[in-house]
Amino acid sequence: MSEKIICLGKEFNSEEERREYFRNELRAKLPELKKIEGFPIGEDEDIINLSDPPYYTACPNPWLNAFIDEWEQEKESIAGRKKEFYVDSPYATDVSEGKNNPVYNAHSYHTKVPHPAIMRYILYYTQPGDIVLDGFAGTGMTAVAAQMCESPDLEVKQQIEVEWTKLFSSKPTWGLRKSICSDLSPIASLLATNFSGTEDLEVFDKQSKEILQEFKLKLGDVYSVKYKKEKCEVNFILYSDVYACSNCNEDIVYWGEIFDYKTDSDFEYAKCKKCNTNNDAGKLERKFKTVYDDYLGNTIQIKKSIPVQININYKGKNILVNCSDLDENYEEKVSKLKPSKYFPIVRMPEGDEARRNDRTGITHTHHFYSPENLYAISTLYDLASKYKYTFFGFFNTSWHATIMRRYNSGGGHRPKSGTLYIPSLSSVGNVYNIYENKLSQLRRFLFATRSFKEKNRIIETVSANSLGIKSNSVDYIFTDPPFGANIMYSELNFLWENWINVLTNIRTEAIENKTQKKGKLEYQELMLQCFIEFYRVLKPDRWMTVEFSNPSAAIWNSIQTALQKAGFVIANVSALDKKQGSINAYTTPTAVKQDLVISCYKPSDKFETTFKTENSDLGVWAFVSEHLKHLPIHLQKGNNTTSIIERSSKILHDRLITFYLMRGLPIPIDSKDFQEGLRQRFVERDGMYFTAEQAAEYDEKKAKAPQFVQLSFIVTNESDAIEWLKDRLRKQAQKYQDIMPDFRIATQSLRKGDTLPELQEILNENFIQEPDGRWRTPDPNEAKDREALRTKVLLKEFNGYVTAISQPRAKKLKEVRVEALRAGFKNCWEQKDFKTIVTLGDMIPQNILLEDEQLLMYYDIAKDRV
Q1: What pLDDT is attached to residue 479?
Q2: Which of 324, 329, 641, 738 has its CA 20 to 30 A from that of 777?
Q3: Cα–Cα distance, 169 to 348 (Å, whole number)
């Protein structure tokens, strides 16, 4: 007798009975769920049939809070859980993790964080039974990581335990963490439920064998050709674009005539075989053919692409031969293939990426497949969709079966990541072989995840700004959100989502996209709404980790501004070098070259209450004390102690300003008084500030790695230049002529539109000149005088900008001094003159506004108050 299944307090005889019951419940709830932001585009029954409720829904999941209540009750019976569990400082150590593992290889996606990397964060910030959220879940690697904390791969477990022992003198607390994963994309959430679920291996083997046998039978001779009277299996076919001779219009085939397959590069000139003209290869025009599209029912013009080479298995060896050397006309043979099963025939949507191939006549979804592969993939869809994991393998196969698959003479043919790019030379693979390989990869994946259970993670399809989770209920958030215009997820997923007939609702898709009329500011607003939702559902005094991947400083500042405006306090920013697998302290947003890991926390209720009831001066130091507790104490690289930029007086002051601005409060202290207060109340070590207890720990750890490495400055603006000079003159007073050569070199990477005063002017405003001509850093009293003098100069310059833009027919300012804008915006904020901030913000170069954290924060909040 089979074991009864209990789900949310209800008893069922089988999983199918459970599924059917909750599908009916979901069907009844759809009218209300459709009111929620991010509800996908599709027919009700397609959404219902795709779902496996209550664990996974292809729409908002109405059972999330019921699971949260159940999981909270379960915590009480988990052995080893601490009643009081708080993490003071962020996980700020090196993470090195490759992508070659059975889970990562199971299915490709546009972006994916290896689950062992996420495991480290989950193990550090949570304890067994805790609830982890990922609101931009993609393929659900966070759900995978949460379950792997209970049943890790032995090698991964040993590696992490060695790291933990070295870093924390203890081993991590292994054990299951529960997870909630949501994504706006229906295909992403479907992939996530597959990645974080499992299947009995015997059942999967039986299903795979069945599907492969039927598929082979139905394909017949689609991937068979005759060569030298031998029947040979096709491995892949090279389809080459055809270009026109600029003189006589004769065909010039890309393979061999433009592309040199011996060197894997293009010729500079392509000689016409008919008229001998030497054509500039880079200027040749593509040839088109006029054909009748049976599926559209009309004549179309599409790029001319012909099969030129075919890789076959001939007498036990894989060889590449000319298609013209076959015993039959291959192009004629495959042109007769007509699919009898379902395949999508849909116009590619408007978008920045989706219609990139329109100019070549590839306008609809079926155009992405060659004739033989369209026949094969539609046949496979009809078979593979019978079972959960054979269907999972179908999606990866469908992507690799397109003409986007690029030829690589060294092997590893695959589409270009993050795009819908179709090359001039496509490697059209044997769909049976591709699918068989994907099923083999899935078997290794299912073995690795054999202990997974659907009930330990909940998947939903919804906008990240409308999660439907009750407030203060999540223990930790790890997320890898979309960043600006990096990847057009909904457009790339369109090919996949048309196979399931459920599409992404793009209204709140958090990307920068010209077609959707979403610029950097619109992107920032969308991210803000998502972070506000994350802040709402996260428990107080808990952490969120955000992975950031975009080379744009403007996008980085948009993310940072949105995080802080939502209420989070940033404690640590590190650069994640995936290639070398290291995390390095991050210094300047304009120097974003690597993936970043942002650690931020939601302040405790106690602190918020204390902050609001204290007078302004005590509130400043209450914030600093609380924030210092959340910062890493010691960072070591090799045998060296490295600087923690978040503990510098400048960054501490920046965080303070943001904290006050975000709450709509006047900033009660200037930079110099703040620095003096730091020196009086806290302990300074190597240019960093600590509480007395932290300083003792820092000293102890530094004694074991005594060589101190100061982070190098990349000077991109006046503020950086002042810090560069302070660092130099703090060590030794110097004359102007000694400073100038190095200063010129250091200031070569200035932002466009940002005016940097002359070195002499910067020295006069910020430093003290001795009688012998040497410049030094000022003492606290001198610094106050210098600050007052400098502020007066900066405000005068700022008022000049205000006057300039107030003139009739005033034009946008091409160049500005950012420090003057900062001083002026601060003054306007104190005077509650929000209109001037917004008006001037609209008239300065946009890159200056978006790439400066302080200016963007003032502008963004002032905009809400005008």
Answers
A1: 96
A2: 641
A3: 55
At residue 573, φ and ψ (nearest 5 deg) are -130, 125
| H or E stretch covering 188 | helix 186-195
3-state secondary structure of 505: coil
The mean-pLDDT minimum among 88-102, 171-185, 408-422, 447-461 falls in 88-102
Quote the pLDDT of residue 411. 79
Q: How many CB atoms lie within 10 A of CB 849?
A: 25
- The pTM score is 0.90
CB 285: neighbour CB atoms within 10 A?
11
* In contact, 117 and 97? CB cutoff 8 Å: yes
Query: Using an 8 Å Cβ cutoff, are 397 and 405 in contact?
Result: no
For residue 347, the 8-state DSSP code is B
CA–CA distance, 373 with 375 (Å, rounded to integer)? 5
Task: Please provide the DSSP assignment of 617-681 as one string.
Answer: HHHHHHHHHHHHHTS-S-EEETTEEE--GGGSHHHHHHHHHHHHHHTT------HHHHHHHHHHH
Distance CA 604, CA 458 (A): 27
CB atoms within 10 A of CB 362: 22
Q: Domains for the chain: give ranges and CATH numbers.
A: 5-198+449-582 (3.40.50.150), 221-442 (no CATH), 788-866 (no CATH)
- Cα of first residue to Cα of last residue in the chain, in angstroms, is 69
pLDDT tens digit sequence for 712-743: 666 888 888 898 898 889 889 999 999 998 88
pLDDT tens for 94-114 read 666 667 788 888 888 888 889
Q: With a cut of 60, say whether residue 619 has pLDDT above it.
A: yes
CA dihedral (251, 254, 258, 260) positive or negative? negative
How many CB atoms are located within 10 Å of the residue 407 CB?
A: 20
Q: SS3 of 135, please?
A: coil
What's at 865, amino acid-wise?
A: R
CA atoms within 13 A on the CB side of 277: 15
Asked if pLDDT for residue 543 goes beyond 50, the answer is: yes
Cα diameter, the chain? 98
- What is the Cα–Cα distance from 737 to 210, expressed in whole angstroms? 81
Instruction: Tell me how far apart the alpha carbons of residues 552 and 593 are, in angstroms, rounded to a whole number.
Output: 9
